[in-house]
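_Backbone structure tokens_
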Amino acid sequence: MSQVIFQIVMDERTRRRMMIAGVLMLILGALGVVVPQVLSFTLSLLVGALLIAAGLVSLYLTWYGYQRSLLAWFKPVILLVIGLLIAFHPVAGPAAIGLVLILYFLLSAFAGISLALALRPVPGWGWLLFSGLVSAVLALIFIAGWPFEARWLVGLFVGINLIFDGISLLMVGLAARNT
């Protein structure tokens, strides 16, 4: 079994930036926990707007490049229809976003746990492991409650995840100061 060795150099500026990012993530996460429906609604509107913008760009390309191909019109139409549905019915958006977040939490768990285990001798690695485990638990809870609880779970779980990401960044930054 091969062993991967990481050498992490963290100067004072990098450590300070890590801690600032941690505090900002904590604040954003706290907002998501306090008002989860507002965060879920805002995320729905943002996703809807992004899909509409992507649909318009794709529509422009199709109009000026592939007008004669019926298949080329499929993507812009799908992007616009789904974007408009989410934008005009943002309450239904969290259920769709919930599916994406389940995947995000699972991948975040895998990445966090893998990185923590790879960095194991580095001070603060346990906080990264803990953050990865929290992401795994959030994914499992979300899977169990989807789609019925998606309206408030999206905002709440994104908030919780941001809080633990913020804590892990703060703890690694603090541990780097002590080495």
About this structure: The radius of gyration is 20 Å. Helices lie at 12-34, 36-65, 74-88, 93-118, 125-145, 150-177. Residues 120 and 126 are 8 Å apart (CA to CA). Residues 17-177 form one domain.
